[in-house]
Amino acid sequence: MEGGVPEADISAFRECLSLSWKNPYVLRLAFSAGIGGLLFGYDTGVISGALLYIRDDFKDVDRKTWLQEAIVSTALAGAIIGAAVGGWINDRFGRKKAILIADTLFFMGSAIMASAMNPSILIVGRVFVGLGVGMASMASPLYISEASPTRVRGALVSLNGFLITGGQFLSYLINLAFTKAPGTWRWMLGVAAVPALLQFALMIMLPESPRWLFRKGREEEAKAILKRIYPPQEAEAEINTLKESVELEIKEAESSDKVSIIKMLKTKTVRRGLYAGMGLQIFQQFVGINTVMYYSPAIIQLAGFASNRTALLLSLVTSGLNAFGSILSIYFIDKTGRKKLLLFSLFGVVLSLVVLTVVFHQSSTHSPLISAVETSRFNNTCPDYSAAMNPGGWDCMKCLKASPDCGFCAYGDNKFRLVGPRRLTLLAESSQILETMSTTWSMFDIQ
C-alpha cells in the first residue's frame, strides 16, 4: 500500500485510540466495514452451540453424523464460492457494494435458518451465510486498508481480525443466553440478521474506497474522502502518491508488456511473499482451529460434560482467549513487526499441539480395554439404561445425559475404553486448556 508517512514512534494501537477524538471519521469507516468480520465470526461460531439443539429437534440430524457435518461444512463450501467471486465483484462494482451484497446474503441466510422446518432448508440457509462469509472476508479488510491512514493501517486491518474472533466469542454468549428460550437454535441462528441490517444501514451512508474511485476516474470524490481521512498537512502528499500508483497500474494494464502472473512469479521477492502469505493461511487451517471452533461444545460433551449449557459455558474460555489473542496482535503488529509476531505465534502453536498430542496419547495408552462383562456390569448401574425400552440403541451421549455421575460408556466391538468419572474430568480439563492454548496461539492475526 502507498504511504509517505514515516513509521510511528509510538504504538499504532495507542494512536488508534487517539483517533476516537482526533478523527472519529476514520474509526467510523473501519468499524462499519469491520461488522462484516463480526458477522463472519458469528456465523462460523454460532453453529457449534446451535447444533446441540438442532439434534434434539431433528432426530435425523442426531442419528446421522453426515447430516451434522453437512450443516457445518456447507457454509464453508459457500464461503469458497463467495471468496472466489468476491474479488471480481470488488473490482467491478466496488468494495462498498460487495459489502452490501454480503449483508444481504447474511440476512437471507439467517432468516432461512431461523425458519427452517427440516435439515435441508437449514443447509440452504447455511449456504447463503457461507456466500456472505466468503464475500465479507474479501471486501471488509480491503475496504478498511484502503480507507485507513498509513500510520495505523496495520492496526485497523487487524481490527477486522479482532471482530472475527469477537464475533465467535459473541456467538457463544448468544448461544448461552438462549439455552432456556423457546426455539433455542432458531434464535441463535436468527440473531445474525440484526448486525447484517445494521451494517447495511451504515454502509449506505459511507463513501466508496478512494483507491477504487481513482481507478474508475472519479478523482474528485476520492480526493474529498482522502482529505477527511488524513490531516491537512498530509492529505496532499497521500493524494499524489495514490494517484501515481493507480496511474502506473492502469498504464501497465493497458501496455503491451502486461504484468502477468507468470512474470510476477519470476520475481523472487513477489514469489517468496506469495508463498509465505498463502502458506500461512493454508497451514493455519491444519492446526485444528476450525475443528475446535465448530465443534467445541460437542468435544466438551464427549469429554464428559453432558449438559448443553455447561458445554457452552466452558467453550467461552476457548473463544474468549481466541479474541484476546487478536487484541494482542492489534497492539503489537505495528510495534514489533509482522515477522516477529508471526514467528512467536507459530512457536506457540507448535508447542501447544505437541503437548496436546502427548496428553491424548497418554490417556489412550493408559486406559484399559473393556470386555463385554465389564460393559454389562457398568451399564447395569445406570437406572435409565436398565429401564430403557431399547438399551442396545444407546450411545455415549445418552448415558452421560442420563446421569451426571456417569463417567463410563461403551458400545460396539469393545472399541471404547474405560474412563472413570474423576479421570474423565481431569482429561476434559486438560483437553480444554490445551485447546485454548492452540486456539489463542493460532489466531494471532497477522495482516
Automatic annotation (TrEMBL):
Pfam families found in the cross-reference section: Sugar_tr
Major subcellular site: membrane
Transmembrane segments: 29-54, 66-86, 98-117, 123-144, 156-178, 184-206, 273-296, 311-334, 341-360
Keywords: Membrane, Transmembrane, Transmembrane helix, Transport
Compartments in which it is found: Membrane
Residue span, Major facilitator superfamily (MFS) profile domain: 29-447
Any one GO cellular component localisation term in the record: membrane
Xref: PROSITE patterns: MFS, SUGAR_TRANSPORT_2
Entry-linked InterPro entries: MFS_dom, MFS_sugar_transport-like, MFS_trans_sf, Myo-inositol_Transporter, Sugar/inositol_transpt, Sugar_transporter_CS
An example Gene Ontology molecular-function term: myo-inositol:proton symporter activity
NCBIfam families: SP
Family, similarity comment: Belongs to the major facilitator superfamily. Sugar transporter (TC 2.A.1.1) family.
PANTHER family linked: INOSITOL TRANSPORTER 4, PROTON MYO-INOSITOL COTRANSPORTER
Name this protein carries in UniProt: Fibroblast growth factor 3, variant 3
